[in-house]
Structure prediction request, 194 residues.
Amino acid sequence: EAPRHRSNAVWTDNASYAEVLIQAPDDVQLSCNITYNNVKIENGSLAQYNNDKKLWQLLFAPERIGLHELTVYAGRNDDNESSSTSVVQFNLDVNKLQRPMKFPLIYTQFQTKKCQIYTPLDGILKKGSVVPIHCVIPGATDVNLTVDSQWLESEGYRDPILQREITVGSKEVLIYAKYKQKSSYDGLVKYTVQ
Prediction:
């Protein structure tokens, strides 16, 4: 949907990331990346499904000013191989960047199950801080988190919404979901700590 009829994504001077919205058939899963001088920026992009608008929300976080290349990939959910093809590229010209950020690490099930993070979008959490977690995780039988590899008490999930507060530890925070067909939890999102 955006950017409509043009090859450049829109950059706002006070932003930490740019957004591209794309509509796709139900059986198509999108992913994306951002590069600068042909080098991929680690955790610089996030593809998530907006369940309200029925659109893929692709977010891109540059690390510096200059011309970046945004690539969107598409693959079918029913494919046996998890192959995806580059379907569109946008340029992103960043002329001012006040606060660079990184997105959390996203695991395959996050996109397959059409999950969405409302907060925190920043993948680096502050040690010892109290952080609200608000995500859409459709169809799980249970959702839980680990802080520094310790499981928390399961709370705050009512399909499809996870909403709770956690106290950040010193290493990492992971969000897991359990689905009907499996006895174990699948990793969805990983935050690092500074």
Notes: The mean pLDDT is 93. The chain has two domains: 18-94, 105-193. The CA atoms of residues 30 and 169 lie 32 Å apart.
